[in-house]
Design brief:
Elements: H1 7-28, H2 36-64, H3 71-99
Keywords: Membrane, Transmembrane, Transmembrane helix
Transmembrane segments: 7-28, 34-61, 73-99
């Protein structure tokens, strides 16, 4: 019964869980990670990448099956927003530093 959900549902679920696994190492890591915490952070990163990829695949399958609703786009939209956030923040910070460069 639980596995008979539409692809749009799996797209949303996998993307949210993948995003949580992507953000969690930043919250649990100490200032100088050592030992087991480094291994667990690497495992979380790999699991996050796998889940986000599966969310994209589920979203593509939902679009192919022409499911109703906007849930089918969430699996593609969330990883793109994460990538844009990671890329654009340093660029915007650099532009801000260049604009506020007072001699």
């Amino acid at each position: 019964m639980f596995l008979n959900k539409p692809y749009g549902y799996w797209s949303v679920l996998l993307s949210i869980v993948g995003s949580l696994f992507l953000v969690t190492p930043y919250f649990i890591s100490p200032s100088d990670p050592q030992g087991m915490i480094v291994i667990s952070m690497k495992i979380m990163l790999v699991v996050a990448i796998i889940l986000l990829t599966l969310g994209i695949v589920a979203s593509i399958l939902a679009i192919k099956k022409k499911e109703v609703g906007v849930k089918k786009y969430f699996g593609i939209l969330l990883p793109i927003l994460i990538i844009l956030f990671v890329i654009l923040i340093p660029i915007l910070m650099g532009i801000g530093f260049m604009l506020n460069d007072n001699p």
